[in-house]
Amino acid sequence: MSRFYVTTPIYYVNAEPHLGHAYTTIVGDALTRWSRLMGNEVKYLTGTDEHGLKIQQAAQAAGQTPQEFTDEIAPKFAHAWERLNIANDDFIRTTEPRHKAAVVELLQRCYDAGDIELGVYSGKYCVACEEYYTDEELLPGDLCPIHKKLVDTYEEENYFFRLSRFQDRLLDWYAAHPGAIKPDHRANEALGLIRGGLRDFSVSRTSLDWGIPLPWDPKHVTYVWFDALTNYLSATGFGDNEQTYTDWWPVDYHLIGKDIIRHHCVYWPAMLMSAGVELPKGWGVGGWLLVDGEKMAKSGGNAVNPLELIDTVGVDGFRYYVLAETPYGTDGDFSYEGLVAKYNSDLANNFGNLAARVATVVAKKCGGIGPAPRADSPLAAAASAAFEGAQRGWNDVAPSKALDATWSLIRATNAYLETNEPWKTEPGPEVDAVMGDALEALRIVSVLAFPAVPQTAQTVWERIGFTSNIADQRLPDSAAWGGYPGGLTVTKGDSLFPRIT
Ligand code: MSP
What we know:
Number of helices: 16
Strand content: 15-25%
CATH topology of the domain at 335-489: Isoleucyl-tRNA Synthetase, Domain 1
Helix content: 40-55%
Shape: elongated
CATH class of the domain at 335-489: Mainly Alpha
Distance between the termini: 46 Å
CATH superfamily of the domain at 335-489: Isoleucyl-tRNA Synthetase, Domain 1
Bound molecules: 5'-O-[(L-methionyl)-sulphamoyl]adenosine
Number of strands: 19
CATH architecture of the domain at 335-489: Orthogonal Bundle
Radius of gyration: 25 Å
């Protein structure tokens, strides 16, 4: 059995969870569910980023201490992920002792390696990004390029991480690990940042106290990005338990949004090199979900609450839309109309319709007992192509491709039924053969669709007569044609995805 470790960014707790946060979290959930089906031992990590100026200011505005403030908001993320059926194995908060231990260990290692040195910083800072900008990077009028807000000017004594020393080492490493950052165009973006020249970045602040003190100079607290990135190690036991750390590290995929490429694909690997820690095996970089062409964000006033959308399309309807609509890596335009259109076409009219018509015909023509499939069914080839396409898609962190391949089997099965019209045929071996094939296709579809729509997959699984937990199925065996035994009771039940008009 192999191990598979996947992370999401840890989310700032100055805002409540919105669709932009849900996006990466659902992608990671589907990816890790697929990996469990493939028989791997999985660790799926998400959590919250609770230190830094942005949180300190948000707490002040709310009239609370930062700790009170974060204690109130962090559980809202955990709760939102429960509602969205996210099967994370761990939830890390950067205010936890295990995290502090890891940050102290990583800092000390970089300091001992001579890559952290004292200096003075004067520069322009965007609190929302928790990032310094050069004049060239700012928009006219000293506006942050991401938040379009006026930046602050700071001057203070800081410790610096000597990132400028790592340009060649990073380029060499990426050259030796092609495909580590997916998709390719996002890898090119990361390489462009490295080739463009690397500035040292400060890793401490003296102007705030909401953070982790530097072990060798406690009047400084750790810069929030150095702190935050380390969460991926903290959750493995780094700095505490060598066994669990080496069991899980290096991570298989860091899933991130395109706005945090610099931190994850430039700062982070350099920090790890300095500390003598292995680099991640992979990064999956997603685009943004836009509303009217703008990034969805609290500051933009256009945040969509995912929990409201599930009232309309259900948890699985929402998860499917997020995974299938936008190719991972590119920006997607979110609209309510788009959500409903995708739901109606792929879920109500395709998957839901297939499940309903199979159950109806089996009830009418086969006495409600599912017949076995034919070994030489014309659908067998479609099923094996669906599995191969799904596997390729999940391996490439391309959920929309994995789901398109899965849905190709739904479409092929619907077309097969329309060609054979079993509802017009008298009961007998001919109908049994067609319905056995359709049930077998539906069984395979359920397994392949499980990572995206887990609840629905389990329901279909039970309706075609199984009593087991679909999560216990193992691929590739479960996708092999011929697994439906026949003789099981098939039930129709309520519509899986009622059409939304
Ligand atoms: N706390 C940092 C990450 C630290 S990771 C060591 C942070 N937090 S965030 O809450 O602002 O954003 C987290 C992630 O959500 C980012 O990857 C960002 O790209 C993603 N999204 C936030 N809004 C988004 C959209 N509208 N669309 C898609 N993802 C976007 O950055």
